[in-house]
Specification:
Helix content: 25-40%
Radius of gyration: 19 Å
Number of helices: 8
CATH architecture of the largest domain: 2-Layer Sandwich
Order of helices and strands: HEEHEEEHHHHHH
Strand order of the largest sheet: 2-1-5-4-3
Structural class: alpha+beta
Largest sheet: 5 strands, antiparallel
Number of strands: 5
CATH topology of the largest domain: Beta-Lactamase
C-alpha cells in the first residue's frame, strides 16, 4: 500500500530488530533505490538505537535528509515498533529519492525542507554488516587524524569506546576487523573492552 501511495521513488522497508543485526530486512519495496534486499542488514542509525537503552525515549524520526555517496539525496522517516515492555522490536522506514526535486527547489522547497532537528543525518544504507563496520572504521580514522600504528594505549581505549558506543560490537565477528585496524590481539581487545565498560575492573 505504501509503495503504491508514494511511488517508485520511495523505498519502503520493514526491519525485524529482535534477532541478529546481520539480517534485519524482512520486507522491502522499490529496492532499486539502494540495492538492498530481504535478509540484508539495517543502517548505522538502527544499530546505534539498539546500542542505547531504547526505553529511554521515543526514537522516531521524520523528514531527515540523507546524502548518499553517489550524490543522491534522500528524505527519510523511521517509525520504531515497541513491545509491551517498551523495547524496540522493529521499525518501518521510508526513503524517498528527492535528488531531482532538489533541482526544482523553488517548486518543492516544502518537501525538501527537513521537518526534524536531525537535518542532514548521516545514514549508511549498507547491504551487509561488514560495510557498517568499515564505515565506522573510516569515521574513526577521520576523527583520529593519524595512522592507527601511531596510536597510544589511551587512544586505542578511546577507539574501543567509540566503536562500543556506536554498537559495532553487536555485530558478529566485528572484533576481527577492529583488531586488524588497531593492530591488537583478540585478548587485548577483550581486555580493553572490559576496561571501557567497567573502569573499576582494572
Amino acid at each position: 500500500m505504501l509503495a503504491i501511495q508514494y511511488g517508485s521513488k520511495s523505498e519502503i522497508i520493514l526491519h525485524d530488530l529482535t534477532s541478529t543485526y546481520e539480517s534485519t530486512i524482512i520486507g522491502i519495496e522499490n529496492n532499486h533505490l539502494t540495492g538492498r534486499k530481504v535478509g540484508d542488514c539495517g543502517s548505522n542509525l538502527g544499530l546505534e538505537i539498539l546500542r542505547q537503552d531504547s526505553r529511554q525515549k521515543n526514537h522516531d524520526s521524520f523528514g531527515y535528509i540523507t546524502h548518499l555517496k553517489d550524490g543522491r539525496i534522500f528524505r527519510s522517516s523511521t517509525l520504531y515498533i515497541y513491545n509491551d515492555e517498551g523495547s524496540v522490536e522493529g521499525c518501518l522506514c521510508i526513503n524517498t529519492d528527492i535528488t531531482e526535486m532538489k533541482e526544482l527547489a523553488s517548486l518543492f522547497s516544502e518537501l525538501y525542507r527537513s521537518q526534524s532537528s536531525q537535518d542532514n543525518e548521516k545514514e549508511v544504507f549498507a547491504k551487509n554488516v561488514g560495510e557498517l563496520v568499515d564505515y565506522y572504521i573510516e569515521m574513526h580514522q577521520e576523527l583520529l587524524g593519524k595512522n592507527p600504528s601511531e596510536m597510544s594505549k589511551q587512544e586505542k581505549l578511546d577507539a574501543i569506546r567509540y566503536f562500543d558506543e556506536k554498537g559495532v560490537f553487536l555485530i558478529s565477528k566485528s572484533g576481527n576487523k577492529i583488531c586488524r585496524y588497531l593492530g591488537i590481539s583478540k585478548g587485548t581487545l577483550y581486555s580493553y573492552l572490559e576496561n571501557v565498560r567497567d573502569p573499576e575492573s582494572k
